[in-house]
Each structure stands twice: as C-alpha cells, then as structure tokens.
C-alpha cells in the first residue's frame, strides 16, 4: 500500500428498508445518504419484497448523489464495502450485487461487512472515540447484544436476546397501541410527557448477559386486553403513561445487563449503538448511569445510530487497513454470527 495515498471507500448498506451510500476518505465521512422507504408505513411493518424493489430503484441515484456530495470521482474510489449480513435476503442481494459489480468494473477490492459489527464501529466515526476495552450495548430492530470490543475488529458478543430484540419490543407495543410503524420513535416521543411509574411491567432476567423481551410484549398485550374490557378507550386515554412505563421497563432491563457486564469485566468505556440508541430515554439513562458508575459514556450522533452506510464505511476502512478483502464469489446471508 502507498502510505501517502488517501483511501477512499464507497460504502453500501441495504440490509432492511433503508438504501444508504457513503463515501469516506481516510476514515472521515464525506457523505452519508439514506433513502428511507416510506412504502412500508402502509402495512405496519417492512414488506420484504417491496423493500428489495425499492432498493433496486434507489441504489444508483443514492450512490450517485453520495459521490457528488463527497466530491469524489468514481475512478478515485479505492474499495467498495457492503453489508453482507444479517438482514432481509432480497434487500442484501441488491446491495451485494451492486457492490460486486462496482468493484469488478473498477477493478478495486471488495470488502464484506457484518451489519452488527458496523453498528458498534459507528462509535469510531467521530471524536470522542472509546478506548479499548470498550463495552457496547447494540440495540436494533433485529438484535440486542452486549459486545466486548478488544480492538476495532476483535469483538465478542457476550450476551444477546433469546427472543425479541429491544427494537421489536418497542415496535410491537406501538402496534398494540395503534401507533404507526416504526413504533420506536413514536413511543419515545409520547413517553417524554408520560409517567414512567404509572404502570408496572415485569422485568425479565436471563442468565449471564442474555436478554428476553417476549414476556414484556405478552404482559403488555394482556394488560391492554384487560383494561380495554373495562374501558375501550383505556389505551387512548393513557397513551403517554403506557409508553413511558413500557420504555422505562425496556431501558431498565438493558441497563441492568450493561451494569452487570461492566462491573464483572472491570470496564469503564461504555456505549450504545443501533436504532434503539436513538431513544432519548435510553440516552439520558445511560448518561445518568455513567455518572453513577464512573464510566466514560459514548453515544453516536443520531444519524449514525439508525441504519446508515457511514458505519459500513468505517468498518470497511479498518478492514482495508488490514487487507481484509473478499472475492467476488461471496453471497449475502440473512443470518450470520460474527464473533
Ligand atoms: O438499527 P436499526 O435502524 O435497524 C436494524 O438494524 O434493525 O433499528 C431499527 C429499530 C426499530 O425497531 C425502531 O423502532 C427502533 O430502532 N428505533 C427506536 C427509536 N428510533 C429507532 N426505538 C426507540 N426509540 C427511538 N427513538
Ligand atoms: Zn441496524
């Protein structure tokens, strides 16, 4: 590698319902475009077939604008990084096919990225960056994981959800309350004006650093069924308090595990990542817990919490530095472990 030459990476993220492209120069984000697919709102959840079709429509214009905004010509791109797993297979295929074709046409290296590792590395896009060892709680629509990071690419999943993810719990409760998809941001907004102690829901405690959110989902379902029998408008009348109470329960379960892991491993560099880390209650609770526990707390900028290609690009950058390239025969996979 020529040490004086800068490294320009084009990154593609298409694992679910956001088509995103970013350009990074030496690990610095020059552009980060996200085309969010609105079509799914009509159906109350992501429709996989529609997601793939929308990715196909979006990918070329999104990459085009990302390159233009970055002011980088495609001939100056040194490598293409793309989300290889996990996600919806049809969605992943669109990004993978695009990235492979791009790399082949320009004869540049291809870098495969695991989406969950990229969520963690979103912490390394901007300052202040965590020191190692770093403990990251990754909370998204499909995953809830406690991750020990020994270096940028040496990570270990210490525990994860055995059923629903934290984001799924937010989205499913929102659906029960008749709120639009995706429910997480809506619950967050309503919870700000509600009483988190108005209703109490069970806290599950799994072994080690694992989580379970399906019990909470069922508890909220039965609670609403019972209350609606007495008053059909119960949910509408108590919406803010229900949202605040459910959010409080989810945050408590998440932070209990994070505290346990930080204590047992003796780590004081602690952060959150993934879509649910955009939650204002969780961000505040982590800041407060950090003060109480003496942690240095790291919370990515809002745009790097939810799905974005900048996080794929920063992961691609560290892999590029290690010469960790993949060949064109690689296929995306819907599920894949990574540590
Ligand atoms: O990481 P992400 O964008 O996509 C996946 O990889 O899954 O996470 C999406 C999840 C959804 O469940 C969404 O409801 C949740 O993140 N989410 C939130 C908030 N913003 C997004 N949950 C709670 N509060 C928020 N403000
Ligand atoms: Zn994600």
General description of the model:
- Strands 3-2-1-4-5 form a five-stranded mixed sheet, with helices on both faces. It has a five-stranded mixed sheet with strand order 8-7-6-9-10, sandwiched between helices.
- It has two domains: 8-120 and 306-321, ATPase, nucleotide binding domain (Nucleotidyltransferase, domain 5, 2-Layer Sandwich), CATH 3.30.420; 127-300, Nucleotidyltransferase, domain 5 (2-Layer Sandwich), CATH 3.30.420.
- The mean pLDDT is 96.
- A hairpin with a 2-residue loop joins strand 2 (18-25) and strand 3 (28-36).
- The chain has helices at residues 48-70, 89-106, 115-121, 166-176, 183-191, 214-230, 234-237, 239-265, 280-293, 309-321, and strands spanning 8-13, 18-25, 28-36, 79-85, 110-114, 134-139, 144-149, 155-160, 269-273, 296-298.
- Helix 3 (115-121) packs across helix 10, helix 4 packs across helix 5 and helix 4 (166-176) runs antiparallel to helix 8.
- The longest helix is centred in the last third of the chain and has 27 residues, at 239-265.
- It is of the alpha/beta class.
